[in-house]
Amino acid sequence: MGDMNFKAVLSNSQPQVEVMTSEADKVTGYRSFRIGGFEFMRDEYFARISWPAKNTRISHLMPVDAFLRAIMRDVAWGFFYGWVNFDAVVGTRNLYGKVELFGGRYYAPMKSAGLDCTETFDSPVIMATFKAILFDWVNAGFDPFAAPEETGKTVYGVKKGSNLAAIERYRVPTKRMPGMVGDSPLRSDASGFPVNRQFTDVPQDEPEVKAEPGFEKELHAFNLFKYLSRSDVTWNPSVTAVCNASLACPTTEEYILPIVHGNDRVEWFVQLSDEITWDVQDKETGALRARITMKAGDVAAMPADIKHQGYSPKRSMLFVWENATPGLPQLYESGKLKPYPVEF
Ligand code: PHB
Ligand code: FE
Questions:
Q1: How far is it, in rounded angstroms, from Cα 187 to Cα 110?
Q2: Which of 16, 53, 55, 75 is the most exposed place for a label (fewest CB within 10 A)?
Q3: For the chain, first and last CA: distance in Å?
């Protein structure tokens, strides 16, 4: 690490920017990548992330499957709201236009020892670098969005092909609701979305909608349980109803949320089916603050000053409710808004 030869190449993603990459390793076939002082290298089992601190280089290891699932979410969600921690140590903070990449910054033992590093990049540059890592490191047969039971073990080992279809999955943007005229489509067998193996008991009937003449394109309803039963991905909220800044983002979950999300606003969870356990930690230090098990019908608000990670022992349906009101992060950071939404 640190003595590898990197050269700038134009990204094969849009917008085209320069990405620092090495030659493919002669043994494993994988390239290494560099952005600012950070270097990313993978071998058969691990992603190795390193950064400069205290006149040396700190090197951090993550299992490569966990790393790829995490970086995939960061890319797919455009760095999301606030913090996307890949694990306790490494992650990004969205400054909306720019992105911070950090190592050890929100992990108290490293931060207090001065072994942390934070650098800020223009969003398109770090996006292109992360995409280049995914292009190179995801092998054929491995889908970072799939539940472990539903994807291959080809994530491990030396480089074997790629899986561009999985990492460039086209997400249809929803303007109001799926199934409305001119909006994103509903899911069906015919459109390539069969019912998931764990949701075969979910009723597939659609509601009957009777609109007054003239309102046929305005009044709409669909079976959300049916829609979610046909989701082919895990831990990937998709917008299914937009009302000004209120975004309904339900999702299907199985295994572990690949990131530890640090909020820059309050977000609400409604557990629609089955069960998820959440670890809730202090956003700065990682100290455990709470563990909640949510069963079907439970509602929780995640405060604006924590980070959280969920565990779903079988595939479950979760309704995530996001508030996209402009300026919210500043209101929380300045203390004008309390970090929690209700006082009892
Ligand atoms: C979250 O960070 O709140 C989150 C992200 C992805 C999910 C569910 C929750 O699938
Ligand atoms: Fe969250």
A1: 46
A2: 55
A3: 53
Contact indicator for 145, 166 with CB cutoff of 8 Å: yes
Q: Check residue 3 and give its pLDDT.
A: 64
Taking the centre of ligand 1 as the mean of its atom positions, its distance from the CA of residue 54, in whole angstroms, is 35
How close is the Cα of 267 to the center of ligand 1, in Å?
Answer: 9
For residues 190-229, b (16+ Cβ closer than 10 Å) or e, as one string?
eeebebbebbeebeeeeeeeeeeeeeeeeebebbbbbbbb
Output DSSP code: residue 336: S
- pTM here? 0.96
pLDDT tens readout for residues 168-214: 987 778 999 999 999 999 999 999 999 999 999 999 999 999 999 99
Choose which residue among 320, 321, 322 to substitute to test ligand 1 binding: the one with the highest number of ligand atoms within 8 A of its C-beta: 320
Where are the extended beta strands (E) located within 191-274?
Answer: 241-243, 246-256, 260-262, 267-271
Which residue out of 75, 238, 251 has the highest number of ligand 1 atoms within 8 Å of its CB and is therefore the one to mutate?
A: 251
Using CA positions, which residue lies closest to atom 2 of ligand 1? 261
257 CA distance to ligand 1 centroid (A)? 7
